[in-house]
Amino acid sequence: MGEQPALMTRLLDWSPVPVKFIHCVRAPLDVIATKTKKNGKGLMRNIDIYFERECIAMQAEQQLSKSQFHRVHLEDMITAPQDSLKALLAFLGVDGSSEYIEACAAHVFDSPRRSRDAVEWTDVQKDAVRTGISKIEHLHRYQEGCS
To answer: Quick one: which of 42, 55, 76, 109 is 20 to 30 A from 84 by CA?
Structure first.
């Protein structure tokens, strides 16, 4: 979708059922560190890839209505899993019993995994992440974590 933004419009026009997008967000340093460990492309390349994808998500959000796009931050899910799940189910138009929500919430981790701690970050890499965060509003909450 980043290379061909018109594809989203074509998908929405083509689909016989409503299409909804859920954007899951986690602290950038942790996402980048995990990706680097898995794909071996190096931190700087994964920093670029991460922010390219977040820009695409930001563009998608701008193209879509609130009924088509929902963002979930991992930290919110951990802090208030029931509230996050209720909001997600409401977005999807699904009723969830309190038992269902409690059962799902019971599987949420107590804290996010800090993949970033397994990686040595240079000042240049941290600066690149800080710069990327500053350009994308839904990531501003992670600015302090890049110190």
So the answer is: 55
Rg, Å, the chain Cα set:
17
Give me the residues paired with residue 21 across strands.
69
Which secondary-structure segment (H or E) carries 73?
A: strand 69-73
Cβ-proximal residues to 42 (8 Å cutoff; 6+ apart), any chain: 36
Please give the CATH number for the structural domain made up of 6-141: 3.40.50.300
DSSP 64: S
Contact status, residue 133 vs residue 28, Cβ threshold 8 Å: yes
User: Which residue ranges make up each domain of the chain?
Assistant: 6-141
Report pTM: 0.88
- Strands (E) across 11-59 are located at 21-25
Cα 21 → chain centroid: 11
| Rounded Cα–Cα distance for residues 109 and 99 (Å) | 18
**CA–CA separation, 105 and 98 (whole Å):** 10
Which residues of the chain, if any, have pLDDT below 70? 1-2, 147
